[in-house]
Amino acid sequence: MSSPLAEIDDLLAQLVVLRRELHAHPELGRAEFRTAARVADELRALGLLAFSGIGGTGVVAVLKCGGSARRLGLRADMDALPIVEATGLPYASRTPGVFHGCGHDGHMAMLLGAARHLARTRRFDGTVVFIFQPAEEGMAGARAMIEDGLFERFPVDEVYALHNWPDLAEGDIQTRPGPIMAAADRFDIEIVGRGGHAAQPQGTPDAILAASDLVGQLNAIVSRRISPMQSAVLSVTRIAGGHTHNVLPASVQVTGTVRTFDVGVQDRIEGALRAIAAGVALASETRIDVAYDRYYPATLNDPACAGYALAAARRAALRAAVASEPSFASEDFAFMLQAKPGAYLWLGQGKDGAGAPLHHPAYDFNDDVIGRGIAFYTALVEQRLSA
User: How far apart are CA 22 and CA 102, in angstroms?
Assistant: First the structure.
């Protein structure tokens, strides 16, 4: 048998063109109308049954071969980011302020390529469910698809996803059992005083001073409330209040994020944050309102599935390894892993230290790894649905 990459060499030039077309026409989460239609057209052209409008703009296609009842799910995300692109590329975004800055265009190209290759080789026995998911970037598109009956309409035994990873060299692939991506929480806090003249601070509770005290205490939660043996991050990312130099504002807003891997740690941090806010409000004679949103759970790989994925990666001639530690970034594939066993992997796309990181205005997906992603998906399907 020829090498995994040699088998798909004839597909790659077309997929690079497709990837760059998707890059030039990015769409934000819940608005991937052109993208979803393009994906569905590609799948139907292969003779696959493709279904649109799942969870909003999600697309699912089914490829069956043989008589086995085994079913495997493969997922790619479709949405772009609200970032102004700064790559200067000839295929740069044509939509102002919207940009594929996380490589979801490449993820779609890889999964469409896998669909093309599997549809022609058919060296498996069972059903492959190709899941093209909207609204990954903070809008919980995976949850929306699940709530819309994804796994009832298209049942799978296991589900897998890849994400390009600029920190890893091209040809590397990593995953790990258990936590691989963090839970993501957002807090929005409003400190309410009365407002007044800056020359007469004794006449009004000082919302800015209270906010300063609050931020200092919040940044001590992880170091003083959480065991050093556990991992967590709390970052204050926005403070807003006031309009001029001689007026104490009536209110100040503080926003930030919390990242954890354990629900118990998550509970402790939220409880400490609320307690600190109540204490600062009492001491400063302000009112402090806290909104705390646990919008993504931790991404937890099934240990057996992580092992299957690494074995398939080696079969695909990738340098497979167990990741030494999880990432504090978050991923809504977590919802799919709550519903079904599976694994999430990082596919290296680094080129000798060159290139921008994810979510950077100058980021661009490395087209040279499209074939590696297809080879992995093919090996995984042929392994888990062996004929």
Answer: 13
Please state, in angstroms and rounded to a whole number, the distance separating the CA atoms of residues 7 and 292.
50
What is the secondary structure of 28-87 as a DSSP string? -TT--HHHHHHHHHHHHHTT-EEEEEETTTEEEEEEEESS---EEEEEEE---BS-----
Per the listing, tokens 């080696």 go with 314
Domains of the chain and any CATH numbers = 4-181+298-384 (3.40.630.10), 183-296 (3.30.70.360)
- Beta-strand pair 342-350/158-169: parallel
> For residues 64 and 264, what is the distance between their CA atoms, to the nearest angstrom?
42
Cβ 311 vs Cβ 383: under 8 Å: yes
pLDDT in tens, 275-322: 999 999 999 999 999 999 999 999 999 999 999 999 999 999 999 999
> Can you name the residues that pair with 289 across neighbouring β-strands?
190
Distances (CA, A) of 90 to 21, 68, 296: 11, 46, 35
| 52-100 pLDDT per residue, tens | 999 999 999 999 999 999 999 999 999 999 999 999 999 999 999 999 9
